[in-house]
Design brief:
The chain is an alpha/beta fold and 128 residues long. 37% of the residues lie in helices and 19% in strands. It is built from four helices and five strands, in the order E-H-E-H-E-H-E-E-H. The chain has a five-stranded parallel β-sheet, sandwiched between helices. Strand 3, helix 3 and strand 4 form a beta-alpha-beta unit. Helix 1 packs across helix 4 and helix 2 runs parallel beside helix 3. The two termini are 12 Å apart.
Amino acid sequence: MNSTSLAGCTILICEDEPLIALGIADAFTGAGARVLTVRSLASALSAIENEVPSAVVLDHVLSDGERSQLCKRLNQRNIPYLVHSGYSNLDGAYGDAVQVPKPANPDVLVTTVLGLLQRRRPTLHLNL
């Protein structure tokens, strides 16, 4: 990992595969972020209502249903997110959301989230 820091940021990881979630969480923790991990869409919706994360890493397929409500709520709250998926044909499923194919090095996810935060929240000061 390079010297990039996400200190002061909270990253919500929505991933139902525990080993994948752990690898992603470790990368974000290593970059200085506070990490929340959920395994379902219902838990993700609850998490963004209870505490607004800085950004979200969202698995395309979670066990409990339709993701459009979550994506709509993230957009309403101006929470940047990326879709981390093993599915290759997601054209249009997430609008203009950034998609990172699985498998991906977790550091790529960190770098991508940093880019999202810099684009969508220009007043956020990151320690680069």
